[in-house]
Amino acid sequence: MADNFLEAYGKETSRDVGTRTMNYFRELFSLEMPLGRMMKMMPGMIKFATASKDTREDLFKFMPQMMPMMKQAFTGKKEE
Amino acid sequence: MPRLDKVTQIPKPEQIFFFKSCVASNKYPGIESCGWESLKILGVEPVDSDEQTCCGGFVTFANVAAPTASMPAVARNLSLAEEKNLDTCVLCNGCWTFLNEFGHFMNHNEEVKASVNMMMNMMGREYKGTSNVYHIAEMFYRLKDDIAKNVKRPLKGVKVATHYGCHYLGGGKYTAIDDAQMPTYMEELIEILGGTVVPYTANRECCGTGFTQIINGKDLSLEHTQHKLDSVQEADPDLLIVQCPYCHSQLDRVQQQLNYRQGANYQTPVIHIAQLIGLGLGLPVPKLAFAAHISGRQRLEEVLDRIGR
Amino acid sequence: MSKKTLVIGGGIAGITAAQKIAQNGGEVILIEKEAELGGNFAKLAFTFPVLGDAKALVAKEIDAVKSAAGVEILTYTTLQSCQGSAGDFTVELKSASGTRSENVAAIIVAAGFHYMEPTAYTEYSYGRSKNVVTSLEFEKMAAENRLPQGKARVVFVHCVGSRDKAKGYRYCSKICCSYSAKHAIMMKKANPQSLNYVFYIDIRALGKGYEEFIRSAMEEYNVRYIRGRVAKVIENEGKLIVRAEDSLIGNPVEVEADLVVLASAMEPPEGSRELAQVLGIATDEYGFFQETEANVRPVNSSKPGIFLAGSCTQPMEIAASVAMGGLAASEALTLIK
Amino acid sequence: MLEQVKDWDDDFYEKFKPIAMGFVNEAEKCLQCGKCTGQCPAAAVTPSYNPRKIIRDLVNGNLKRVLSSVELWQCFFCSGCFSVCPMDINFPFFVFMFRLAAMNEGYGWEDVKQLEGYAEKDYLRKGITVSTFERNPEVVETIGDISKIRMEAGLPPERKVSDRGLAEINMISDLSGMTSFMKKIGGVELLDCKTCNDEQAKRCKTKPLPSKVGKIKTKLRFYNYGEPGGKAHAEA
Fold first, then answer.
1. How many CB pairs below 8 A link A and B?
2. Cβ(C128)–Cβ(C233) under 8 Å?
3. Do A47 and A18 lie in a common domain?
4. Which subunits have 3 or more CB–CB pairs within 8 Å of chain D?
5. What does the pLDDT look like over C113-137, one tens digit per residue?
6. ipTM score
7. N or C: which end of chain B has fewer CB within 10 A?
């Protein structure tokens, strides 16, 4: 086991760590909605829809707003 | 000295959204019942909702999730008050700071607000950012004249020390109603109720919970709380007043732990400002729920005997 | 057309400017809003970096200006209004006996500075504990022999109001490092048993003799310099508990002190913005008067014919104020002759 | 040990600030005056903890030192540093942001694992983060049944969040990635205390916890900012 943080990181510099951290936060705080992210949200939405009758109704009300976003996610283009 | 310009901005509404706190509900129910009843006596009708959950700040500050998970939870809780067109009154410094801070971020960052609102829309809600969040201690200070008129059980000869709590004064450097280093509004409230204020050295020290340190860094947490309790012990107050249920839980429970671990003898009753006001306004003793308190139970009974049950 | 010059402010810069103009045959009206001449200089006990008797030095200068031919001194007087342009200003002076109108060729603004009242610094218990004083109050205590006796610990806190965006000003007040060292030396001289601690962020001792002066405090007078801004001062049973970080070691420290001296910031004189408005000249973001060019035109205000001198332009020490007063005088003289 | 300045990620802070949703601000204005540390409750009990040094390393881009440190996990979140800071640096916000970054590097999961239960069992299932359940038998002995006290105080025996409310916070959790994040925490493989030598065990802040086989392996953190203090270390 390493004795200090320099040994633990070996040849990696703080610059490498910084790049990795930046990429992590960029993805975490991204407000974009690519396909992968949308697919990840699906199970949660299904769970919500099946919770009760009124949650399902509320979610269905949201569907018209949802469609252009889905389209954009699939095609990767922003709709004019 | 309280910032009077801030105090006068607090409205005196007919109704207010009563935001319940996790610790207050499940560990010290007296805070919840006293807050509710005292507001009623002071002419503000509390309104609650069983859809209200934990404020949502915990998950971010405990690092169980990113702040992106807290924002929608905060927005959701605030939207409950917005639906009723009411301001929010919280019992806990944590709720106050999280609802305020995250609300502030969303109000000042349109993109974040839009993405949060997308999630809100899925649930048939919308976050507008119109509900102001007030701490119940702020409300009490705003209503101090009404309190003075309604004192039924004066705290004559009761020595009271104060603990304000970091998440209100520290985090609210620019938003709290008092100065972060030399606050006095709780002292004023105590004097209105007829109590005697006892100063002690470590007044502005943190209670030591350290948010999560009590769970994953217990040694640090206990050491700091002990330092605080030593100072309280020296001043020997009958009651230690807090305005945050989390500080309440720490200062109350750690006394017992230290007594057990080190054979110390800390016996200072800790009560929330809502309970103190409830005590002064003459609420029946079961409503104060002192049975849920752990340290200084005997002393609490003595105080009750002295000022009348 | 008038050959007179109006000097606003009877501190060391204004006194110097008035003297120099009079020595060159000009006529001067020197107005001072308070009872006595001397300004902030007259409130000090000692000068620095050479420990001179401040009261004697300033008294000599006041005498010189009072006896100078062609200098009219008006105390309790303020400027009411100002019209006209360089070479021909009409000013209205207000005093207790009423207002009077004068025609002057040039105006020198030497309004001085004000020691900030650190009332916002509640963490330092200022205003709550009588043993927490500003450096100006310390000067007074020293003059009246009220300094703590015996084995007293005295803590000097730098940068109270300076270099502080939240509660004070972002600028450095320049002289606090030196005068805190002076106070520590005064303390040690008055009470050799005392233990003195100075909490600093950086030591700014620029100029001839300054570095040596501060080193002498450390070397000859055993003043302990601890790098770290004081975080809080708590009163406890008559003692003051000072908490700070010794940031060179990286460890929090606590000092049990008998007296805490706050080196409060130099701020623009009270009413500087109103005065600037009356004169029609510019101030900077803090309220100090703005010069047209910082390096080669330090005494020229934004309006021709109005010149600036001393610490109403920026925090500065006595020597610089005197130099600036002289330069302002020579600029004013060009308009008279 | 000698550090190479050329290894630092000098412009990390400048790049990070705009994407941090406004949580990380003003650190470039830090004067290194030490007022924060002077009033810090954590620094008073353990001298190696020092917010000033952490801010310095973040601005300099010495990320290796910050992210692998134990000190990053010792903040009390009391905001005292913010309340006295002459430059209005809100350090507690830095802490939770960089704790996330440290977790991305594989540090500190054992601390978060102890908190995951509150989020999963209480927050998501009941909507209330603190439950009525008492771990400490002495407390139970002293106060008895909390629902009885609630009833005496005129409240329902248990505070219940409606099903609709629970469904909503669960969806927020699913949609914001909190659920998957917590699954990760659940699968954390903790340090094996048996492999530590005495020297490492002395430095270790981690107490033995039930380990679970999963994808993430926690790494040993270091006291990067000085010798640790506190009673626990004094006795060890």
1. 24
2. no
3. no
4. A, B, C
5. 999 999 989 899 998 889 999 999 9
6. 0.90
7. C
